[in-house]
Amino acid sequence: MSNELSYLAFQLLGLVCLVAIIPSGYAVAQTERKYLALGDSYTIGESVFENERWPVRLVKTLRINGKVIGAPTIIATTGWRTDNLKYAMDKCQLADDYDLVSLLIGVNNQYQGKPIEEYAVEFEELLKTAIKLAKGETENVFVVSIPDYGYTPLGKPKQVEISKAIDSFNAVNENITEKAGVKYINITDISRKGIEQPDLVAGDGLHPSGKMYSLWVDRIKNSLMVDQ
Predict the structure, then answer these.
(1) Of 76, 176, 93, 90, nearest to 127 (Cα)?
(2) Where are the domains of the chain?
(3) What would the mean pLDDT of 61-90 be, rounded to a whole number?
(4) How far is CA 43 from the centre of its chain?
(5) Under 8 Å between Cβ of 218 and 165
(6) Residue 23: pLDDT band with limits 50, 70, 90
(7) Helices (H) and strands (E) in the chain — how many of each?
(8) What is the pTM of this model?
(9) Which CATH architecture has domain 20-225?
């Protein structure tokens, strides 16, 4: 990559802190709990409307269930690997005052053929940072498993190969998450309904639809509220 392109990438990552932070339609109140969602295309909601993104839906659902929580701060972009997310988080200079932090990352490490050993090291570093951002409290953090894009129209031809790889990456992030004492929420089985239920896949034939994200949110909400 040339110096010019490197500088452009640097600028674009910096913009994430400004444009991806607060979805429209939310009023900010000082008493609201702060939620930070970290990830890639799945967290930013590639190919769905803003109000269908799962972090946005989660906030709405938690509010319905009596939780006072503000609009999600979203640090995520389609195509990001673990190293890209780390770079963006460093650029954003986030405060260590979040009441809830979610982490979903890894599909692009797998898709781009990055070593799983490298992923393990970088994921663990990201998780440690997520805990730090969550006031150092592990109970304020949760990890979401990587969905299986093998069960989409675009992934179907290589479904067996993709599913095996996703299982391997999820085994790594689940093990690291559990060792850290952080809640792990598995949504991969839901993503594997994408072929038999086409409406769970977005129009691009690859990413989850708003309907699938709503199923994720139901599971995440139940997991988060079981101890509260």
Answers:
(1) 176
(2) 20-225
(3) 96
(4) 4
(5) no
(6) very low
(7) 9, 5
(8) 0.89
(9) 3-Layer(aba) Sandwich (3.40)
